[in-house]
């Protein structure tokens, strides 16, 4: 899980090498700032199976273009939306990740 502030020194801190170290069973969760993760390397790692899954709350460009992520497997993108009744939205990342990792219906790619 990435939780750091954005500085010039940590731009791209989560690089291809870090993603490859996490491996095909690894999960990258970024809740810090989008610039901290090398998005091009992330997309490539997910597309070719070098990284297992990613959950993203932030992006290099906000809002992130939907087309950039459309065909990328095993990624959960968080889009903040107001709660309607105070209960968690089952489409939110935590719910999606839980369903995906436990094999329940409605997970990522469902």
Envelope shape: globular
- The CATH superfamily is identified as NAD(P)-binding Rossmann-like Domain
**Beta content:** 5-15%
The termini sit apart by 24 Å
As for the CATH topology, it is Rossmann fold
Q: Give the averaged pLDDT, no decimals.
A: 81
Count of separate DSSP helical elements: 4
* Class derived from helix and strand content: alpha/beta
Give the second-level CATH assignment, the architecture: 3-Layer(aba) Sandwich
Largest sheet: 3 strands, parallel
The overall number of domains is: 1
Helix share, percent: 25-40%
CATH class: Alpha Beta
Radius of gyration: 14 Å
Descriptive overview:
The protein is of the alpha/beta class. It has one domain (16-102): NAD(P)-binding Rossmann-like Domain (Rossmann fold). It contains 4 helices and 3 strands. It has a 3-stranded parallel beta sheet with strand order 1-2-3, covered by helices on one side. Strand 2, helix 3 (66-69) and strand 3 (75-77) form a beta-alpha-beta unit. The longest helix has 10 residues, at 93-102. 18% of the residues are buried.
């Amino acid at each position: 899980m990435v939780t750091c502030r954005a500085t010039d020194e940590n731009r791209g801190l989560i690089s291809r090498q870090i993603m490859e170290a996490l491996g095909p069973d690894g999960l990258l969760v970024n809740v810090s700032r989008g610039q901290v993760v090398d998005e091009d390397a992330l997309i490539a790692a997910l597309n070719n199976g070098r990284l297992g899954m990613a959950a993203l709350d932030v992006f290099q460009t906000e809002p992130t273009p939907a087309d950039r992520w459309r065909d990328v497997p095993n990624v959960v993108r968080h889009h903040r939306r107001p709660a309607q009744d105070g209960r968690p939205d089952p489409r939110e990342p935590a719910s999606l990740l839980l369903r995906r990792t436990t094999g329940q219906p409605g997970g990522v790619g469902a």
